[in-house]
Design goal:
3 strands, 405 residues, mainly alpha, three-stranded antiparallel β-sheet
């Protein structure tokens, strides 16, 4: 039998019907115009699809997630929204990106050689005379930019709240005239910095701090709870005694002692709070592992010689995460509130850092400037409310009575 006859027989079924060659090919997505197959589509498992539907059924939590993510993503690009440097300059046939790179003022006609100050009237006049093209952020202030032409003493009112009496007072006492003011939508603080710019940067720092603290502390807490619950016995007993001793240490006093030795900063503060925040989820995960380690399928896995590591993280951990996930939004809101409280007391981020707690502290010291207190209060209230609503929706999504109904 020649090769052609053998090939024909291989492509014929026993009943004589020809076999379509495409049936013998592996399943694949249709090729694109360049001959490349499309990427596989991501699909939820049936149980996760039902959880997502339960999450969406909670309309308040679902829309809170979208609002929170929109605000957070916008603040990630804070330098493009509020900055005292242009995004783009085209001058003398050259292109500059001051928001990314620092240029000396000699590039723009000066002779000092220092970093260019794009808010300097002389530099702006030079660029206007040479017909330079500038693209500025919507807010021409960074979080540390001082308004050098205010309408009154600091803290000054929001520009849109200025009345004719305020303009007359500014003209009479040597402040900037109302027609020449730069817009401060939420006014300035007691050092002349734009409140809206500091609010945008402060929101980003608060959320990033809470997110990092929540993720790292949850990983440590889940691992510690898993070891306690799975092994039990002396391991569980010693770990519990250690946690009781550790949580009895006064966190605020320790923070004061460390702050007096180390310069407070984002990562220093994160490390100090991480020393205590990891214990939040230990008890919950420990209880889930204590309950699950006696299940029949876990005992069967042990009898088959499956390693403890595989049993803990492949078979027990997914069940424990159902209860743990419902707590994560509340842990994050607690982390954000902790940073805000420390900044309010003066033990948080370094002075000058954009912070919601520092804004509230300024509001307490300047009761004659209600825009400071109202801005800080409503921002913190909005952030925490959105996180709480998201947490409630996550709780509904992982509720076994709704998931397995």
């Amino acid at each position: 039998m020649d090769d052609k006859t053998r090939a024909d027989n291989d492509l014929t079924e026993t009943d004589g019907r020809p076999v379509d060659i495409r049936d013998l090919m592996p399943d694949a997505e249709p090729a694109g115009p360049l001959g490349l197959s499309f990427l596989p589509r991501f699909e939820f498992s049936p149980i996760n699809a039902r959880r997502w539907q339960n999450f969406k059924a909670n309309g308040r939590g679902y829309w809170s997630l979208w609002i929170f993510m929109t605000i957070f993503v916008l603040t990630l690009f804070a330098e493009l929204i509020a900055n005292d440097k242009p995004i783009f300059i085209h001058y003398d046939g050259k292109t500059y990106f001051p928001i990314i790179r620092t240029y000396p003022d000699t590039e723009f006609g000066d002779v000092l050689g220092t970093a260019a100050d794009y808010r300097d009237p002389y530099l702006q006049k030079f660029l206007d005379e040479h017909h330079a093209i500038e693209i500025w952020p919507p807010i021409r202030f960074s979080y540390n930019t001082i308004n050098d032409r205010p309408p009154s003493a600091f803290p000054s009112k929001p520009t849109w709240l200025l009345t004719q009496a305020d303009c007359d007072y500014a003209a009479k006492n040597g402040y900037a005239k109302c027609g020449t003011l730069e817009t401060n939508w939420l006014g300035t603080d007691d050092q002349g910095r734009d409140v809206l710019a500091r609010l945008i940067y402060g929101f980003r720092i608060s959320v990033l701090f809470g997110l990092v603290l929540t993720i790292v502390s949850s990983v440590i807490g889940i691992a510690a709870g898993a070891v306690q619950g799975y092994f039990g016995g002396w391991t569980d007993l010693l770990f519990q005694r250690f946690i009781e001793i550790w949580t009895s240490v006064p966190e605020l006093y320790l923070l004061l002692i460390i702050s007096s030795v180390l310069v407070p900063g984002f990562f220093v503060l994160l490390g100090i709070l991480l020393l205590f925040s990891w214990v939040r989820l230990v008890g919950l995960v420990r209880a889930e592992f204590l309950r699950g380690r006696n299940f029949e399928y876990i005992q069967a896995a042990r009898a088959l010689g499956v390693s403890n590591k595989v049993i803990m993280f492949r078979h027990l951990l997914p069940n424990a995460m159902v209860a743990t996930m419902t707590f994560l939004p509340f842990v994050m809101s607690s982390s954000v509130m902790t940073l805000t409280a420390l900044d309010f007391l003066g033990f948080g981020l370094p002075p000058g850092s954009p912070s919601l707690g520092e804004l509230l502290s300024q509001a307490k010291a300047n009761l004659q400037a209600p825009w400071l207190g109202l801005t800080g209060f409503f921002t913190v209230a909005l952030m925490l409310s959105l996180l709480i609503f998201i947490g409630e929706a996550v709780r509904d999504a992982f509720d076994p009575r709704k998931t397995y109904a």
